[in-house]
Amino acid sequence: MIKKKRTVIGWAEWVTLPQLNLPLIKAKIDTGARTSALHAFSIETFKKRGAPWVRFQIHPLQGNRKISVTCEAPVVDRRMVTDSGGKSERRLVIETLAQIGDVTRRIEITLTNREKMAFRMLLGRQAISKFDFLVNPAYTRMLKKVKPAIALETYRTPVQAAPPVTTEIPVPVDSAPLLSLQEEHP
After folding, report:
1. Is 150 helix (H, G, I), strand (E, B) or coil?
2. What percent of the chain is predicted at pLDDT more than 70?
3. What pLDDT, on the 0 to 100 scale, is given for residue 181?
4. What are the DSSP calls for 62-126, one per residue?
């Protein structure tokens, strides 16, 4: 039997979400969580070309509320998610590209307010398995070391817009209405 060499990551890693114009966001790698979550506030849904989309803001750097990025993405689902404290909430789900180290995969992410949490992003088991990484909880940021000043400078430099999402993402039929759907006007 041939053993495949797998990349080992730490319990926290830098992630890039290019379609959301987020060049750096520190994520907690959480093998105890099934789904991934991204910090989001000022969440509003709208329709674009007849499909449900979401617009939200994010403070991408921990402890820095001065930097805010506005993101837009197609909504692929709404799901009930139970957090580590046992509290359940219905969350919007988006699908986007995520890059960790040199590997890029399409993952699903739920949107929730993580303002009081230590990490702006949580990478759960479903996403970890798409990357086929092994997690070593004794280490952190094994694939990319970024000093706080560099992370800050990354967001001070204008971000080039990501290319539009070209793949069609199916919108599931859900009996629960989306939050205040609005038609976007050009």
Report:
1. helix
2. 82
3. 37
4. TT--S--EEEEEEEEEEEEEE-TTS-EEEEEEEEEEEEETTEEEEEEEEEE--TTSS-SEEE-HH
> What is the spatial distance between Cα 180 and Cα 64, in angstroms, rounded to a whole number?
29
Q: How far apart (Å, rounded) are the C-alpha atoms in residues 81 and 63?
A: 25
Which superfamily does CATH assign the domain made up of 18-156 to?
Acid Proteases (2.40.70.10)
Helix (H, G, I), strand (E, B) or coil at 20: helix
Higher pLDDT, 147 or 100: 100
Provide the pLDDT for residue 1.
63
Which residue from 128, 165, 156 is spatially nearest to 15, judged by alpha carbons?
128
Name the residue ranges covered by the structural domains of the chain: 18-156
DSSP 11: S
The pLDDT tens digits for 35-81 are 999 999 999 999 999 999 999 999 998 888 889 999 999 999 999 98
Two tokens at 82? Answer: 């139970």
Residue 164 is encoded by which pair of tokens? 């539009």
pTM for the model stands at 0.79
**Residue 150, number of CB atoms within 10 A of its CB:** 10
With tokens 């086929």, the residue in question is 132
